[in-house]
Amino acid sequence: MNRLNRRSWRQWHRWVGFPAAIFLIFAAVTGVLVAITEFFGEEERLREETRKLVSPVTVASGPDAWSAPIARALASAARVSPNAPIDRITVQIKGPAATVTLFTGLPGGGEDRKLVFGATSGELLSNEAYADKPFLYRLHSGEAFGDGGLVVAMFWGTALAVLGVTGLTIYWTMRGKRERTGIRRVFW
Predict the structure, then answer these.
(1) Domain limits at 96?
(2) 85: how many CB neighbours lie within 10 A of its CB?
(3) The pTM is what?
């Protein structure tokens, strides 16, 4: 690469690098928080506890094996949140306590509640606010700032990719023309 071209690569790398560093720090910090939440979260704990267990329900089981727990949960939900639209139903069959989770929405649209019921008793175990994606995930992706945040996230991701490409190009051109062998070809 000639001297002028090498200088323009370094200049582009610096120009893209400064704003990209801000977004890289933001993405790194929120990414670490997402990973911590995933690693230490309740859902991960349950996955680990039930990983080696065998479900008592099989594909040969009758429809009562799964429909009766759902019917009990729906009957209890009607008392807790009458006429609430149901967004999703999740059934956790294996494990120490089988559960049915109902995710309800609002009559005008949007998410509302996460209701967890005991599968055998239909008893309400948990009633908490629910959003389709947790705030931390939406913050990490930029979605917490609306559609504009997603567009900015696409730009900062592109900027980070450009920063990586220009950095590798600068690295490659600075390594010199001396003949190296083995690992010294890359780490000089």
Answers:
(1) 61-135
(2) 14
(3) 0.60
